[in-house]
Amino acid sequence: MARSLNQVNMETIVSLCKRRGFIFPSSEIYGGLGSTWDYGPMGVELKRNVKDAWWKSVVHERNDVVGLDSAILMHPDIWVASGHAEGFTDPLVECKNCHHRFRPDHLESDSCPDCGGELTDARMFNLMLKTFLGPAEDSAHQVWMRPETAQGIFVNFQNVLVSHRGRLPFGIAQIGKAFRNEITPGNFVFRTREFEQMEIEYFIEPPEIASKKGNPSDEELHQEWLNTRFDWYVKLGMRKDKLRIRQHGDDELAHYAKSCYDVEYEFPWGWSELEGIANRTDFDLGQHQSHSGKDMTYFDDEIQERYIPYVLEPSGGADRSTLAFLVDAYDEEAATGSNESRTVLHLHPSLAPIKVAVLPLSRNEKLVPKAREVHDIVKANFVSQYDDSQSIGRRYRRQDEIGTPLAVTIDFKTVEEDNSVTIRDRDSMVQDRVPIPSLLEALKDKIENLSLGK
Ligand code: ATP
């Protein structure tokens, strides 16, 4: 069977996610809550694998980036210093007829997309969600839910620098929840009001210092990060022709950015941002220095000078990339010469929620104990699932739909003849027979080859 290149539509993805336990509408038994979603048993594994793959590549495999997990609720002055209290706004228009609200920059015409009515003039709307700390609900106790994880990194700059003896260039990475009161959330988990970010603040020498020392400039290091981040998606199996890098025009740049590029994916509704990679200059550390009165400089002992570093920020979304990996992996394959088709997620093995399924051919009393024994061996080494319900064909289809790369089947030959099992490959559907004592090694080899795209 060949991998078809037909475009999947979002309804198909949403329904697969519900049916197979990836993503459910949140608060569903109460009628749901606008654009909030819960990750089910398969979704939580997939999203965790996305975050683990990111952390491994940006923290564990580098020696210039360390991790952080800062609080969601922070001192309100942080958002004044960062400019979010004043400037983290989107334009909002309302239809004078049906009163639906929209972001004018997301509209294709200047009339209401729902009823054709006339729209109001745009007004700016702050996207930060508010709450109160303590029992008094007054402005003195008001705090914001962070709209980005980045500020938790900036305010810990000196803590990390000192405790970690950091030297430029060095980065701090963080994964965590962020909240934005989006005017028009939608496209499943692409744009929600509660989401998870994966952000790196990579501190570098400002341009005049880099040029004085003959080191790579902020712009050169920016290009390096673009390549590094683009390659990460490709290495995890995303089709290269569905990815592109787009530079922001001057009118799109955030208040803190000197330049910014987006890594975009071609979703079923069109090209959209997966990750933004911005040059935030010394804006944030400079703002925190002047608002907090605390020193935010770095002492460069090579040239015996103090300065505020520049910062490059690769900032991605865990939910958006999980969605992109799902969409990209989805395939419906037609068998040559028959009307049958199967749905399969060609997920990279390191992202697949389950790596190995262990399946007795049937619930026969000889097969089940042997299959349990095999599962005990496998589960200590791979995230695996034992399943003996329904027919074997249906169980293969289920594993294909959740993207399990390998299925081990225990049949009568296993118990009556030679203590061997079959390993079925999700993509080629080819089955190999291996003796149980060599099973783990064979599974490791196959997973390794699949990871390399062989
Ligand atoms: P957009 O233009 O789509 O609103 P943005 O440019 O405001 O996004 P950033 O502030 O650069 O987004 O945030 C970094 C990343 O966080 C985004 O690339 C995206 O992956 C993720 N992200 C931002 N907002 C949301 C959201 N509402 N829902 C899900 N993920 C989000």
CATH architecture name of the largest domain: 2-Layer Sandwich
Number of domains: 2
**Small molecules (ligands, ions, cofactors) in the structure:** adenosine-5'-triphosphate
- For CATH, the homologous superfamily of the largest domain is named as Bira Bifunctional Protein, Domain 2
Q: Which residues form runs of ≥5 with pLDDT under 50?
A: none
What does this structure look like?
The chain has 14 helices and 23 strands. It has 454 residues and is of the alpha+beta class. The strands form seven sheets. A seven-stranded mixed sheet has the order 3-9-10-16-13-12-11. Helix 2 (41-60) packs across helix 10. Bound molecules: adenosine-5'-triphosphate. Residues 148, 180, 182, 191-192, 195, 197, 273-276, 315-317, 319-320 line the site of adenosine-5'-triphosphate.
Summarize the model shown.
The protein has 454 residues and is α+β, with helices and mostly antiparallel strands.
Name the descriptors.
454 residues, alpha+beta, BirA Bifunctional Protein, domain 2, Rossmann fold, binds adenosine-5'-triphosphate
Secondary-structure topology with pairs:
Layout: H1 10-19, E1 23-25, E2 37-39, H2 41-60, E3 65-68, H3 76-81, H4 84-87, E4 89-94, E5 101-102, E6 123-126, E7 130-132, E8 142-144, H5 150-154, H6 157-164, E9 170-179, E10 194-204, H7 207-213, H8 218-235, E11 243-247, E12 259-267, E13 270-281, H9 283-292, E14 298-300, E15 305-307, E16 310-317, H10 318-329, E17 330-334, E18 341-345, E19 356-360, H11 367-379, E20 384-386, H12 392-402, E21 406-410, H13 412-418, E22 420-425, E23 431-435, H14 439-451
Parallel strand pairs: 3-9, 19-20, 19-21
Antiparallel strand pairs: 1-2, 4-5, 4-6, 7-8, 9-10, 10-16, 11-12, 12-13, 13-16, 14-15, 17-18, 21-22, 22-23
